DNA sequence: CTACCTGCAAATTATTTGCCTTAAC
DNA sequence: GTTAAGGCAAATAATTTGCAGGTAG
């Protein structure tokens, strides 16, 4: 279990005088093996299977750590809870969210990206990040 | 005060067997006169000036009513609270959010809109709405 | 051993709901 | 006069924090 993600996390941890614990390893491992776009609560349930005594607060704290270390990215689809996805060695993409079944389809469009940069520049705006979400009904849910 | 927005709201209200009250009028009026992208709490403070006995719950309830009636649109910039903007006789636009000062710049780019439609279609996705937010530093905050 | 980390419970924050009184129609 | 609306306080829901004991380095 000495994969790239472990390395990145441990590098961040040692650079910040923090400690590697079995709870942090467990959360990271569960996060890597679960489907994308998990919520804290969902991840908590998954981790609990392997580490029954872990607390929900620890999952929240570890997700913050993963976000700060650059391994995870926070998502917010406006449903009242934050979701997280893998962000390391993962190229940028946007989301289509099916409002029927909740499925999330990822996509990437270089031209849209370029145009966003252009719009920002035209307004003297120094863009640091962006998000594009399309809401609608996926193919399957249309019957 | 018999403007278009009042008419739209009153039409919605009568069609749904609801009632026109001075609180609802006050919230709508404050909403129309305030800057875009208010939160419920902000609007509550504004309305309180004219209608001191109004409750925060009423502001929330009226904002839902405005959203259902199509007058307002909910926004979520991921800062933990919903914001609202005028949505009636207001063409679609996207947002640039300054992460320094919180300022919001609106923009509209037809080509981006078209490309979004294309991406959706290519995936058999029936898009009902979308949101594009650019985060960064505005011209003023760069000095 | 010295911080940092954890689990737990309590605190917070934004928003919603229950209930009883009041006001629209 | 019905019935929805309002005010207020209590309830939720997601997330954060305080603290006392546990553990990594």
Instruction: Report the principal-axis shape of chain A.
Output: globular
Helix content of chain A: 40-55%
Q: What is the straight-line distance between the termini of chain A?
A: 42 Å
Q: What profile does the largest beta sheet of chain A have?
A: 3 strands, antiparallel
Oligomer: homodimer
Which two chains touch over the largest interface? Answer: A-B, 33 and 33 residues
Number of helices of chain A: 5
Q: What CATH first level of the largest domain in chain A would be assigned?
A: Mainly Alpha
The overall strand count of chain A is: 6
Helix-strand string of chain A: HHEHHEEEEHE
Strand order of the largest sheet of chain A: 1-3-2
- Name the poorly predicted regions of chain A: none
CATH topology of the largest domain in chain A: Arc Repressor Mutant, subunit A
Name the average pLDDT of chain A.
95
What fraction of the residues of chain A are assigned to beta strands by DSSP?
A: 15-25%
The whole-angstrom Rg of chain A is 17 Å
Pairing-aware structural class of the strands and helices of chain A? alpha+beta
Look at the structure and name the CATH superfamily of the largest domain in chain A: Winged helix-like DNA-binding domain superfamily/Winged helix DNA-binding domain
Domain module tally of chain A? 2
CATH architecture of the largest domain in chain A: Orthogonal Bundle
Family (chains A, B): Belongs to the Fur family.
Subcellular location (chains A, B): Cytoplasm
Keywords (chains A, B): Cytoplasm, DNA-binding, Iron, Metal-binding, Repressor, Transcription, Transcription regulation, Zinc
GO molecular function (chains A, B): DNA-binding transcription factor activity; transcription cis-regulatory region binding; zinc ion binding
């Amino acid at each position: 279990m000495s994969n790239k993600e472990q390395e990145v996390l441990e590098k961040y941890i040692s650079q910040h005088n923090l400690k590697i614990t079995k709870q942090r390893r467990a959360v990271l491992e569960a996060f890597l093996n679960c489907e994308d776009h998990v919520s804290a609560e969902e991840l908590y349930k998954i981790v609990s299977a392997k580490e029954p005594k872990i607390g929900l607060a620890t999952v929240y704290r570890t997700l913050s750590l993963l976000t700060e270390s650059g391994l995870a990215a926070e998502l917010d689809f406006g449903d009242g809870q934050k979701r997280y996805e893998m962000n390391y060695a993962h190229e940028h993409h946007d989301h289509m969210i099916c409002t029927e079944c909740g499925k999330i389809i990822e996509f990437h469009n270089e031209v849209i990206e370029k145009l966003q940069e252009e719009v920002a520049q035209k307004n003297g705006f120094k863009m640091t990040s962006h998000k594009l979400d399309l809401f609608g009904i996926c193919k399957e849910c249309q019957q």
